[in-house]
Structure prediction request, 225 residues.
Amino acid sequence: AQRVTQPEKLLSVFKGAPVELKCNYSYSGSPELFWYVQYSRQRLQLLLRHISRESIKGFTADLNKGETSFHLKKPFAQEEDSAMYYCAHSRGGKLIFGQGTELSVKP
Amino acid sequence: GAVVSQHPSRVICKSGTSVKIECRSLDFQATTMFWYRQFPKQSLMLMATSNEGSKATYEQGVEKDKFLINHASLTLSTLTVTSAHPEDSSFYICSAGGLAGGLADTQYFGPGTRLTVL
Prediction:
């Protein structure tokens, strides 16, 4: 079955430290992958998509087909980055989400 | 930007009653809407895909007679939880997609509805 896996439920770092939220996918074709973020008491919102190869709020994610990964990275974490992060892939227009990783950035 | 609303934001009901949740796209027409269920500190689980003017497509394991979906217009989809029981208590989230000119996989999420069944 096609799926995305986020191995870490919780990631805690200090402000200014680098962050990497892991995401691995199992899909034999060309996946369409996304990162969504959910801040406390707010709705889920798109952070970035691999097809755009963009940087949003300092975050980047590179698709590594060899490792079947799409890890989310930020060189210097900020307290306002604390949130739930979900990796997702699109299958026929449907989004299939990973389990989510809670990022906690401490002062 | 595209805004999706849900109503009500939270509802408490007695076991055995039915509850209707509305999902609206406020400033765009959504050809497709999706319904998700989210348990505390867990991921979103896709329940069904709703296309305007046609029957919803349910994911495996989701009871279509239990969770009735109606997508009567390009801006409104409703989810009715029939004969609700405590195990149906959850956070229900809708999303809307199909923006003209936008990427096919762009989905915009509603704020969610907290259902508590006593």
